[in-house]
Design a protein that fits this description.
Blueprint (H helix, E strand, L loop, with lengths): L3 H6 L2 E2 L5 E7 L4 E8 L10 H11 L7 H6 L8 E7 L9 E6 L8 E5 L2 E6 L13
Parallel strand pairs: 3-4
Antiparallel strand pairs: 1-2, 2-3, 4-5, 5-6, 6-7
């Protein structure tokens, strides 16, 4: 399990205080950039829920991914562009992140992850803030 210091050591912050770090995700068999969106007050930081979200992605269990397995039979052809972890999702009861897929066309496709399980395939660019009804 990655700790805050491991993540922060590997994170670079841009002028908008967005953090970018790259880790190997065994589920996708590739190194993937994680984009950390945070409130940057008073300085860039990550929360406990953000740390958990990152670790849940790294530890995705292929046996628990029914939604993913129904849609994608050949994981070898699938490429991930980046993973978004947003501090604004900390207000939700569950831990959310979004896996942005690299498609061959101009279509948008992402995987919504809740508590380490891919729960939805999004093609509309849904804001996770819409999940405020989360219980």
């Amino acid at each position: 399990m990655m700790k805050a210091r491991d993540i922060l050591f590997n994170t670079s912050w841009d002028e908008l205080d967005l953090g970018t770090c790259k880790f190997f995700v065994p589920f996708f068999k590739q190194y993937i950039s994680f984009i950390l969106f945070q409130d940057h007050e008073p300085k860039p930081r990550i929360t406990e829920k953000m740390i958990l979200a990152l670790n849940q992605i790294i530890e995705l269990d292929k046996n628990k991914q029914e939604v993913f397995n129904k849609e994608f039979s050949n994981r070898e052809l699938l490429k991930v562009r980046e993973i978004h972890i947003d501090q604004e999702n900390d207000v939700l009861n569950s831990i959310y992140s979004e896996i942005i897929l690299d498609t061959n066309s101009n279509t948008y496709k992402s995987l919504i992850v809740k508590d380490g399980v891919i729960i939805e395939i999004d093609t509309a660019g849904t804001y996770l803030e819409a999940l405020k009804k989360d219980t």
